């Protein structure tokens, strides 16, 4: 069996993906939906306070959730169809950016990773080489060379302008690109994760699955005036996240970090973290965070959600329950069959 076929048969989704964790954009609210009865009981009073007053308005919310459930059911199939259409019709502007090369990476980043791979590798030594970004266990890394960032953004803009079908990263970002559908997984994101990010995560986050990251979901999000400006407070469907600023020119739009998601918001103090072009922020996926609005320009970010099936098979990070597995395509949600 080829690696690709092996991977396809190995990764599963948690059934919570179909019914839990909806984001109601109109009310900027994350909700859980199991049945209409449960949803009315849990959220109708809160939604009323947020302006969803009439039965008609509540019906609109229910219909949006039901459309989203349908969309998620069709997601795998639709994604495979889009990948195939992109492969057969889309002509890349910069074909070389699909294959990770050492020359794309910042020299300091390569040295840090070299240390992590060496016999001398230890957490204390690595912390001496890294800059903590102001929030606990959030690290700033100079990941890419500027020229590569420019070419990648050019490639993504070229794709956006093409007639190829486009899937969107998640319900919180309306503008962005799923990198697996565009063909970045095998030649770029998988080697980036396995050869460069895994050695770092092993030392920094052994308690969060950092030693056994075995899949990922990678996407690019775009913020611009008149499009998405910011990103509300959330946690990622990941054990470890890398978020790299690719450009272009923008003002404001800092990230902010709170506490781990188990800590109530009332006990949380948030810290702002500047995001500089070519640099990445590495953090635990369950570390709550968001992005403040930009006030000028365009901001493109590469996000790699790295997953450890060993961790998530025990407890789904999205619903906090032991997952009941449903089959998914590609890396799906990063669970493996027991
Ligand atoms: Fe995030």
TrEMBL record:
Signal peptide: none annotated. Residues 214-308 form the Fe2OG dioxygenase domain. PROSITE patterns: FE2OG_OXY. InterPro entries: Oxoglu/Fe-dep_dioxygenase_dom, Pro_4_hyd_alph. One of its GO terms (molecular function) is oxidoreductase activity, acting on paired donors, with incorporation or reduction of molecular oxygen. Pfam families: OGFOD2-like. The keyword Oxidoreductase applies. Its cofactor is L-ascorbate. This is 2-oxoglutarate and iron-dependent oxygenase domain containing 2. It comes from Cyprinodon variegatus.
């Amino acid at each position: 069996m080829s690696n690709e076929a092996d991977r396809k048969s190995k990764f599963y989704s948690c059934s919570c993906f179909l019914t839990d964790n909806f984001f109601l954009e109109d009310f900027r609210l994350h909700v859980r939906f199991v049945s209409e009865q449960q949803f009315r009981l849990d959220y109708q009073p809160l939604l009323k306070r947020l302006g969803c007053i009439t039965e008609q308005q509540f019906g609109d919310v229910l219909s949006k959730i039901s459309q989203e459930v349908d969309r998620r059911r069709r997601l795998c199939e639709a994604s495979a169809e889009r990948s195939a259409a992109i492969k057969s019709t889309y002509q890349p502007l910069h074909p070389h950016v699909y294959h990770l090369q050492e020359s794309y990476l910042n020299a300091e980043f390569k040295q840090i990773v070299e240390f992590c791979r060496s016999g001398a590798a230890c957490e204390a030594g690595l912390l001496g080489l890294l800059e903590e970004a102001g929030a606990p266990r959030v690290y700033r890394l100079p990941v890419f060379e500027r020229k590569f960032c420019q070419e990648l953004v050019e490639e993504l803009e070229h794709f956006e302008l093409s007639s190829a079908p486009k899937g969107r990263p998640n319900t919180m970002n309306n503008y962005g690109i799923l990198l697996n559908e565009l063909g970045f997984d095998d030649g770029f994101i998988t080697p980036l994760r396995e050869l460069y990010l895994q050695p770092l995560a092993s030392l920094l986050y052994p308690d969060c699955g950092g030693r056994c990251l075995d899949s990922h979901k990678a996407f690019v999000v775009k913020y611009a005036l008149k499009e998405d400006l910011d990103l509300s407070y959330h946690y990622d469907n990941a054990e470890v996240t890398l978020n790299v600023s690719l450009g272009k020119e923008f003002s404001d739009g800092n990230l902010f970090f709170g506490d781990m998601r188990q800590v109530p918001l009332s006990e949380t103090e948030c810290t702002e973290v500047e995001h500089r072009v070519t640099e990445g922020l590495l953090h635990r996926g369950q570390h709550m965070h968001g992005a403040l609005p930009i006030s000028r320009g365009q901001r493109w970010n590469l996000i790699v959600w790295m997953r450890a099936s060993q961790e998530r098979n025990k407890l789904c990070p999205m619903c906090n329950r032991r997952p009941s597995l449903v089959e998914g395509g590609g890396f799906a949600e990063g669970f493996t069959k027991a």
